[in-house]
Amino acid sequence: MKMHGLGNDFVVVDARTRPVDISPAFASALGDRRRGVGFDQLAVIGPAGNGADAHLVFYNADGSTAGACGNATRCIARFLLDESGGDAVTLSTARGQLAARNAGGGLTSVNMGAPQLAWNDVPLAEKTETLELPIEGAPVATGMGNPHCTFFVEDAGTVPLDRFGPRYEHHPLFPERTNVQVASVTGPDRLRMRVWERGVGVTLASGSSACATAVAAARRGLTGPRVTVDLDGGTLEVDWRDDGVWITGTTAHVFDGRLTPAFLEGLE
To answer: What is the pTM of this model?
Structure first.
């Protein structure tokens, strides 16, 4: 299936009844926008277990794995909610068990869990104050099942993200690389954010990045815990509560497809 959340696009493989073997080479080939299908992330839906309705595994476009993917989780949650006719679903991921629900009006909400604020949980390479990293621009580090580095700037729209992002994705302070966000406060509890995703590049949106940026803004005292985040691809509502960080927004299921034997044989 091809899905997207605010233009943050995914290939989703339903492997609940038939296991699939995903290698880094396969994920990378499938993610090629000219020779494959193309995606920001590949998500695999596995069988339910441990009290969850399904298990999710994520891959980046370069074939590396991702611990969390907020928009893909929302897309899959919507697919499973429509399939079951229910109003709530629980999904297990490397991040842990995530609760999702129908928010009405075509919107889907997912609880992405509590943010990881300690340096060794992000993780960082050394003991460092996560609220103000010793990097030019004093960004904030946040873990949301994957690492994030958020820069607050005057105008996020003017930052050359294609050059800015890779400079910090591979910063030595982040041993697992990092997602990079640039964000501006544009109104009361409203943020403009753009994102460079590790292993992918510039994307139109990112759910986990929106969560990390909202948490960083609240910790800095720039906003309250509930904010509207305007991304290149659309808008997400983020609410940092006692039980975790909830994101709410639209999703789209674009098409269902089948890979040809010729494509699969070409990967062997």
So the answer is: 0.95
